[in-house]
Amino acid sequence: MRAARYYGNKDIRIEEIDEPTAGAGEVLIDVAFCGICGTDLHEYLDGPIFCPTPDTPTSWTGETAPVTLGHEFSGVVAALGEGITDLEVGDTVVVEPYILKDGTDTGPDSTDYHLSEGMNFIGLGGGGGGLAEKLAVRRRWVHKIDPSIPLDQAALIEPLAVAYHGVQRSGAKAGDIAVIGGAGPIGLLTGAVLRALGVTVVISELSSLRRQKALDSGAADHALDPAAVDVAQEVHDLTGGKGADIAFEATSVQAVLDTLMDALRPTGVLLNISIWGHRSDFDMHKLVMKEIDLRGSIGYVNNHPAVIELVESGKIDLAPFITGRIQLEDLIDKGFDTLIHRNETAVKILVSPSGKGVDPA
Fold it and tell me: What sections of the protein cross the membrane (predicted)?
């Protein structure tokens, strides 16, 4: 089968590899669509980070480079390993793509397995990946979805779970006013979750195309251009001088973080959902004087069932966030290059390893 294999910095190759089989307790999945994540771009440009080197594994799989990429994917059950009786061949599924140390408590009451020692992701640290025609995954990480959900939209359930967990960490509730810094995929999906909960959303974004996408997709009530207006002042005006209840940093840009701090009301919550590759020059005095509650968020933990319910119930429509469907061989030219050099034109580009369901050339 074909797969996108990560060898190292700016070295991803489409290769033929052996098809996997489903071992005991595993599910073999025919991949339908796999999204390109910002983390994949970081690995391509600046990595390896989560990915291993040819000499050093980074996950409990013990694999070294090359590894198959892709952790935002949907598909159809192709085969079931020994011991699995609660799924059937033909079921449509998504995957919670964790690689954890054996023995980690991943039960329904766990709130911290995503923070366990050596946590990594399928499609980054090994374990196969969604940028291949098939992969085998432990039953624990496979989530069945209703067949009424199109498989291209289902591929966005993983990043939507990232947004959902961030919102959960923030403590947002109906009637709150939230400001989001950045209308990239996670910023937009965070807005979608917030609005589904009854929160008023203000997004700050430099790109006019992304501001319009925030409004058209229903991810925001207001979209502000930080180059044209004082975002903090606009937020204070919208809230009768009070300031936002919650702010979400989704850019890893210092100026955005500073703006969000100014836009928050005293005792507000600042939730960082972006990955920073550098240290922040954070204004601790302002945090103290406003008694701001600063929180971080990574991944998801037992969030997929609630996220899937949001999509199946129609409370969140993922279709507007899909801006391209490409074939595996076009991964770099039409996928990575677009997201690196023309990212204002794209939100989520999906890859079809089989070549089915791609957009016309």
Answer: none
